[in-house]
UniProtKB/TrEMBL annotation:
Chain ranges passing through the membrane: none
GO molecular function annotation: transferase activity
KW Transferase (keyword) present: yes
Signal peptide range in chain numbering: none
PANTHER family: ARAC-FAMILY TRANSCRIPTIONAL REGULATOR (PTHR43130), THIJ_PFPI FAMILY PROTEIN (AFU_ORTHOLOGUE AFUA_5G14240) (PTHR43130:SF15)
UniProt keyword list: Transferase
Statement: the UniProt record of this protein carries the keyword DNA-binding: no
Coiled coil: none
InterPro entries linked to this entry: Class_I_gatase-like, INH-QAR
Originating organism: Clostridium argentinense CDC 2741
Record protein name field: Amidotransferase family protein
Length: 57
């Protein structure tokens, strides 16, 4: 799946975190990943507030 042999492709992951890098498998997964990023950096309360503000169900 990768043109670079050092990439560790994770087939069923919606998103992965490798140190400071976050990457998702698509647009919908990107929304989940973004909220996961906010949760990791700013905490669950801010992530929940953000999800509510953008009407993420």
């Amino acid at each position: 799946m990768s043109i670079n042999s050092i990439v560790d492709w994770i087939t069923r992951a919606r998103w992965v975190v490798d140190g400071k890098f976050y990457t998702s498998s698509g647009v919908s997964a990107g929304m989940d990943m973004s909220l996961g990023f906010i949760n990791d950096r700013l905490g669950k309360e801010i992530a929940d507030e953000t999800a509510n503000a953008i009407e993420y169900v």
